[in-house]
Every structure is written in C-alpha cells, then in structure tokens.
Amino acid sequence: MRVTSFPLATLRDTPSEAEIISHQLLLKGGFIKRVSSGIYAYMPLMLRVIEKISLIIEKELNKIGCSKLLLPQLHPSELWKRSGRWEGYTEGEGIMFNLKDRQDRSFGLAPTHEEVITYIASEIVKSYKQLPFCFYQIQTKFRDEIRPRFGLMRGREFIMKDGYSFHSSKEDLIDFYKIMEKSYENIFENCGLKTLGVEADSGAIGGGASKEFMVTADSGEDSILFTKSGSYSANIEKAISLPSREKPLNNFSKSLIHTPNQKSIKDICKTNNLDPSQIVKVIIYKAKFEDKSEVPLLVCIRGDQTINDVKVFNLIDKTKKSNLITLSIIESDLEIKKNLNGLPIGFIGPDLEDELIKKNSSWEKKWVRIVDHSAFNLSNFISGANKVDFHKFFNSWKFIGDNYIEADIRNSKAGDYLDKDSSEILLEAKGIEIGHIFQLGQKYSEKLDAKFSNQKGLLENIWMGCYGIGVSRLAQAAIEQNHDKNGICWPIQISPFQVVLIATNLKDPIQEKLALSIYKEMQDYNIDVLFDDRDERAGVKFKDADLIGFPFRVIVGRDAVDNQVELISRSKKIQLKLSSNELIEKFLNESKLL
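Predicted structure:
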C-alpha cells in the first residue's frame, strides 16, 4: 500500500478531549475520528488493526470448534422482558438505547445478545445429541453510557466479540469454560499483549463463575487485587480477604456518648480519642425489585472499611423471587423526608427498631439487616444511639437476635491478608478489562424456555456459557501497554502495517528505483508494507512513522548508491545498515515471521 492512495491524517497538537495517552495517540495518529460523544469513525489505519485482531480471534475460536454467525442488532422488547432485564436496561440509568416502530412495538439496540441467542437455541435444539456447540460473532454493540470517555474505552458504539456455548450438563459447561479460558489466553498472547486473568463478578449478565482478562495500566478504571506469587487475583468487586485487626476497645467508661454534630467517623474519632476500627457505621439502602416492591436495608460495617455495593446487590438479589433492579443509598433530603422522616440520620445504630420506619405502602415493614464480618467480629464497639447528637457503647451483638444476615460485603484492599492461613498480602493495580467469560448456567434457558430432551427422555433446561472480548477496546488497551514519548509501538501481530518504507528523497532517481524495488519484493513475500511515497520532507515522514507506531522502518537514503539501506526496529531499538539484498531475510528473522 502507498501512502498517496492511503491518506494519513496525523495531528501535531494533542486534542483537548483526550484525557489518556492511548486516546491522544489514536486521535493524533488519525486512527479514529470523533463523530459525536462516545461515537467514532474507524479510519483505514484503525480498521486494519481491528481486522487483524478479529482474524486472531476467529482462528483461535475456530480451532476449538466454535461456529461464527451474525445476529440482529435490533431486539424486540418481548425477549428482554421474558429474561427480566428490559426494565433494568432501559429505565433510570439503564444502558440500552430503545425505540418504537410505526406499530408502536418496543425494540432495543443490542448491548449484548443473551436473549436473542437463547431464543434461537430454543428453536433449534431438541435433543442432547445436538449438544454441545458454541456460536460467536464479531459486530457493533450499543450502550447509552452516562459519561462516555477515554475514546474507545467507554463509548456508546463499539466492536465486540461475543460467544455463547450450549451444554447438556453443568460438568460439560465447566469443562468448556476451562477450554475457553485457555483460548482467551492464547488470543491475547497472539495479539502481543500481557494480560492478567482475575476472578470477577458476573454483574448484569448473571450466572455463576466468571473471569475477567485485564491489561494492567495506570489509566485503567478497574482495581485489581493480587498476590505477589500470583496465587490469587480478583477484581475489587469480587475480592475476598481479611482486614487488618481492629484496635481493642476495653474498659470504655461511658455507655452513652454525647457527640454533637459528629456525624462522620473522622469527627467521632478525633473528638473522643477513638480509632475507626472501633466503630460500626450504619448505612441505609433501598432495594427496588422488578415486582415494584421496595425494601429498606440496614447495612453495618466496621468504621475503617468500605461497603462493596456489588456484594450487597448480589446478596439481596438471592433473597427474593423477583429480580433486584436497583440498589441505592438513601442520602438525598427528599428521599429521607419521604421514607425516613424523623430518623436521626448520622446517628443511626445497628439496633434501630423496625417500628421507626415511616409507614410507606411500597416498603416492607421490617429492615433487612446486613452485618459485615468485620463488624460482627467486634466484641466491643461504638455506634449510633438512634438519638440526635448521641452514640453509645455496645459490648455484644445479642440485641440483634436472629433478624440479620452476616456476610462479606466489604471492599478488600491492598495490605489485607489473603486469608487466616496465609502470610501473603494483597497488592493493587489498575486494569483495563478486555475480555470476560461467564458460566451462565440455566439462567436464560429457564426464562426463555430453551430445553432439550435428555438421555432419559425428560425435558431439561440447557446449560449455557457466555464469552466476550472488547475488540475495539483491546486495540486501544494495546496502546496503553505499548507506547513511548514519540508515539505508539504496536505489537507486530496487530499493527496496521508491519513495516513502513521511507525514501528520504524520492526526487533522487537512485533512491526511488531502490525503494520501488524493495516495495515490490516485500509485497511478493506477503510482507504487510506501507510505502511512504509522499512529496514530504524526511523529518515529517519519520515523525509520522513514530506517531503511528510501525514496528519496523526501512530507510532508503544517500547510501542507496551503494545499495545500502537501514532497518530499524521500533520496540527493540535496533538499527542495522545492510545491503538491500539481505533486507528481506534479515527482516523476517528480526520480526520472527519465519
């Protein structure tokens, strides 16, 4: 390919909209063009990267027996209502774009395809003899992000590989899940990326076990906790650990403590010479379910710890037959006035009486009390006295009776011990999620009536797995992991071109002739080469080559008269002067393509 027929659109200035380095370099290198907030055009350079990533994915998935298809992007609401996800995805902060046709029927633009693929499976699968199989696709997805940012990292339109497997037993699902896990490791390695697989929460997709694949980067939005030995790694939403030991609270002289205007843990500790680990803080949540019921939660945790909303959500979601739609902290004045009028907000204790809930037809009449292990393990502690400007001393949890749920609902953090039998502490890093695999189990097949006849002739729900890769996100994440002060340093496997060929002076007939000869020979060897044949100064071409990030550069300069050229490796920082006759063999050796 020649640059004159493949126009470059590089920028010299950094666009103000770009906050992280990978977004800056994609815009400066002319890889993407912003059309609207969170919506980008993939320019020819970027599309070549996307296609190379897609080919790597297809090759690996085909190897393990997966079949490629293409599913519709416009989904009828009926399927999502059957799965119970329509309301959660379209109302409030839901992320699904939705619309109505001229017959007033509701549709959604696909953020994911569990409903559609399960419906298709229900139509084609009749017997266990048809199982297992796995379908996958690579296509555009849509998500109405509240705050699109970081370019392709969190956009409203993006390219994704999603796959779905179907099985006759849980055991078969687990076996295939392990095969897919290894396949993902191969895909990311073949893309030239270093990734970390971490235990993860299944989120809105649901199901049982799930695992995320992360590219570690300072700009990552996810927090990863891991041990130095590599024995454990998990997303912070999923991580389990032991907090540091509390500071003992012995012989406390007061049963009731006057704490005027001391609503925060910091204020209480400073004024009363206490440690945050000696306090139990109480937070009130509201859980809203699909059947329109609302349940108040009284959540207790040690004062030096923070609540993990995902763990609370998952815990409560299992306690009701109706799907949990939203979980929110009651903190606005309007919400407090509506549901908690008269309660001493800021001074609430774990022994708050059920009768103190303001009567509300949408609320159940009792608190669901949740106590984190870190709080329940305290024998003595300070907490709210349910009286404005007062806290009190507790010397046991006997007051709570059996009306509570004890569980792990805290955020693990760096410095925690892995468990009571381990001397390893957790370390923290930021990561960018580029892949996620799930054991869905029978969640969707049960709701969408996708059954098969087992060996005994009985109908049974199909077991399912789900496997996603953010293709466009992977491309940008690769830049976060591979760049320098001059620009991108693409891994050769997914670089838009493997090598750029630059003649420093194309008006010199000797340079032009040698450059054209090398260009043709590289094409004959199926080397992915871009010939920069622009009428530009050499310095401009070199800057663009650095910015765009070609792994190799071949320079034809003054030494062309002696049939000499330069071969430069961007990532290895190797610069070789050699005869053009040796160039192809040397390039193939250096790029490990032989």
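Summary: The mean pLDDT is 91.
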